[in-house]
Amino acid sequence: MPEDIKDEIASLIAPFLACEEFYARYEAVKALGALTHTPSSAPLLSIAADPHEDIDMRMDAIESLVKINDPENHGAVTDLLRDESADIRLCAIRALGSMGAVSAADEVISLLDRDTTDMISDDEFDWDPQWDIQLEAVRALGVMGDEKAVAPIIRLYENELSYDLSEHVFKALSHIGSPDAIRFLARTLSDGAPQERRLIVQTIAKNKALLKEMKNELKKALGDKEPLVRAAATTAYAKLDEQNALTALNKSLIDPDATVRAGALLSLAEIGVGGTFYEKIATALDDPSPVVRAQSALLSQKCPIEMVRDKLTRLMEEDVDEVASHALNAFASLKAEGTAERLADIALDTNRSPYVRIQCVNLIASHYIDSAANLLPSPLDVEPRQVSIAFASCLAGSSEEEEIEYLVNDLRELTGIGDRAEPPAEKDKGVLELDEEEVRVKIGKKTRMVVRSPGATPGALKAEDLIRILSRTDHPKIKSILAECLTLKKSTIAAAAARAIARMGAAECASSLVTALDHVSPHVRSEAAMAVGGLKIDDNEVTTRLGELATMDRDPMVREASMSALGSGPAETVHKYLQKGLADPELGVRQAAVIAMGNCGDDQAIEPLAAELYNYGDFTHLRPDMYEALRKLDLNRVKTRLLETLSNKERHLDHWVAIQALGNVFG
């Protein structure tokens, strides 16, 4: 936003800080912060300090001063720390911390002393504002980094033992990083409660300077009696220099707690790889804990294949899904001979969990996509549904023309569109297997189900699933069958086809989409309208049809979708429909009209949008969308229109709306 426009608007809003209209004054406070108008600091400070002013307005004035962030204001905001209102003190502390006002450190430190006279109670709950003030003070002092705050923060911690307070105290002291702060953290790490010891270790791990200063303390934490502390220490230790870390972490590999052992493996992997590391991973693959086996399986892909292949093969058969999944992932990455076939076997094994089967299919897609067509059967032959979706997704990612044709045939079978096409390959064709349930035919190198007997059970894959998957590819036959799907009476399939066409940006299907605008199902009409809008079809007849749907269709879902689609049309053509949309009884349709006005750059919409800002009915919910739309239009015209209201004294009750709009549009 050009600074000269912001300054001009702010200078016109600033006088309203002194006006008698409460809402105009309130909106001016927020708008001047959004516009970061430094000259307004003095009146904003005056409002923030006025004990007779509305408390919310005072807090918003402080927030605006934070956005302006002029160092000249730090002293005045510091004075608010002595305000009678706990809300104002709390807001002022946050502001000083956000502004990094180091000059206020002494005043903030003084707030750490306990003052029970500020306690507020009622029948339902107790609010202790001083407690919140102390928490905010600790946070702010950590940002300021003043060493004088260390002793008062420690004193507060010792007097007010609390998990919530501990976290903020440790973080603040780690940021300050003075010798006294480090000694306190070391002492608490040695004899504090388990939760506090773990918090300190986690805090140290996030601070590079502190990590070096407290290296010895971390080493001691590796032998802590609490497993959670030891586990946190193994993670932190990985950030130290390699030799020290290796020596300490090797001991953690034989820790009695599985979480610690798993953490040590991960930390060693972060440090680097080498012969001894490979041996440790291979050994951990035999660990009695599934947590450690899963972690070591995940890391084993860094190892030479001959060291881990046999163990990974065994872990792939485990009933624990996480262990089997990581083992499969590592096994696939090693790309040993026969890996693809083994993955396909597990993917087809109905005795394995769907999670593991899907993992195998995804690994084939990642590592062996060129072989997928020869490894996997038709997704129509696979159950349950989530597994069949994975099969279809993998096969659709294959680069083979033949496989796409198979999937298109599968979609024809699911939808009943036309006759199932003949398989593309003719050579080496013959019946391989015949029983009561199915006939399998070999086509090329692949065996596919082609005909089911009357008693056969179809797979769980739905046409909508396959349409969504096929839309990720760009193939003429897919676009052709999607266009045919638009004509189906089953609304879920036709609607899925419309979404797929929009996702593909298939302009070839434009005429079919336009026809689908007259579908009997409102669900399909709405999806078709959205797709037409996405394709940005520049045709007067299409725009007219969308306009008719947007203004006259009985279903609000269709009107809303059509109104949104008009946003991609030419402003001069769609304006009349969008303006009618502002009068629609449905809020969603009105919202779509507002957004579309901005999207199509309809400068003619400035007047109706500005007028509706002062509609105090449902349109109050649409103001954020109106502001966003106005930002996309001619800003000089928007400014002029809003300032007209601001300068009209007879419309003083509307001034606050104009100020709010100016702050949001130009801020």
UniProtKB/TrEMBL annotation:
Molecular-function GO terms, alphabetical: oxidoreductase activity
InterPro entries hit by this protein: ARM-like, ARM-type_fold, PBS_lyase_HEAT
Alphabetical list of SMART domains matching this protein: EZ_HEAT
PANTHER family assigned: DEOXYHYPUSINE HYDROXYLASE, PBS LYASE HEAT-LIKE PROTEIN
UniProt-recorded name of the protein: Uncharacterized protein
